[in-house]
C-alpha cells in the first residue's frame, strides 16, 4: 500500500510542469563553429521541455523541416528576427531549418525522449544533409 502511494506521487511529480526544462538555442551568422549556425546544433531533451530560439544575430528563424518531425507532432515556423519558444511533447527526432539559410546548411536536430536515429530525407539540400551528418556523427554517444 505504501509502495503504491509513493509510486503515485512519483508519477505525479514526473508528469508535473515543475520539472520541464527550457533549452536555449542561439542563432548566429557566425560562431566559432562555423557560419549560419544554431548553437547548439543538437539537443536531446525530455518530452514536454521547451526550446527557446534566440535571435542572437539578425536574419534567422526556426522552422520544422517537412518529413523530419515525428508522426503526430505539429509543424512550426517562427518569424525572422524573433525570439521563439516551442514546447515539444511528441517523442522523436525534429529536423529544424532556418528558412533563408536552409540551402547554406543552417539546420539543427532536436531529439525528444531519448536517442532517435533521424532518417534524412533524400531530397534535402546538399549542405543541409552534410551538416545533419556532422551533427549525427558528433552526438555524445555516436
Ligand atoms: Cu539563418
From TrEMBL:
GO MF annotations for this entry? copper ion binding; electron transfer activity
Its Gene Ontology cellular component terms are:
periplasmic space
Where is the major localization of this protein? periplasm
Give the Blue (type 1) copper domain ranges. 26-112
The UniProt keyword set, sorted, is: Copper, Electron transport, Metal-binding, Periplasm, Transport
- The entry's protein name is Pseudoazurin
Q: Which SUPFAM superfamilies match?
A: Cupredoxins
Q: Tell me where in or outside the cell this protein is found.
A: Periplasm
Q: What are the names of the required cofactors?
A: Cu cation
Q: Where does Cu cation bind?
A: 60, 98, 101, 106
**What does this protein's record comment on cofactor binding?**
Binds 1 copper ion per subunit.
Q: Which InterPro entries match?
A: Amicyanin/Pseudoazurin (IPR002386), BlueCu_1 (IPR000923), Copper_blue_Plastocyanin (IPR001235), Cupredoxin (IPR008972), Pseudoazurin (IPR012745)
Q: Which domain of life is it from?
A: Bacteria
Q: Which Pfam families does the annotation name?
A: Copper-bind
Which NCBIfam families does this UniProt record tie to the protein? pseudoazurin (TIGR02375)
Amino acid at each position: 500500500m505504501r509502495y503504491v502511494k509513493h509510486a503515485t506521487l512519483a508519477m505525479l511529480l514526473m508528469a508535473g510542469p515543475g520539472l520541464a526544462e527550457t533549452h536555449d538555442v542561439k542563432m548566429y551568422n557566425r560562431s566559432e563553429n562555423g557560419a549560419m549556425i544554431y548553437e547548439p546544433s543538437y539537443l536531446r531533451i525530455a518530452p514536454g521541455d521547451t526550446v527557446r530560439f534566440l535571435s542572437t544575430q539578425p536574419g534567422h528563424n526556426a522552422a520544422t523541416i517537412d518529413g523530419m518531425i515525428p508522426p503526430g507532432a505539429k509543424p512550426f515556423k517562427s518569424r525572422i528576427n524573433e525570439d521563439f519558444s516551442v514546447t515539444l511533447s511528441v517523442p522523436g527526432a525534429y529536423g529544424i531549418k532556418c528558412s533563408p539559410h536552409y540551402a547554406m546548411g543552417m539546420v539543427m536536430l532536436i531529439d525528444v525522449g531519448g536517442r532517435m536515429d533521424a532518417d534524412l530525407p533524400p531530397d534535402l539540400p546538399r549542405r543541409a544533409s552534410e551538416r545533419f551528418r556532422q551533427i549525427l556523427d558528433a552526438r555524445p554517444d555516436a
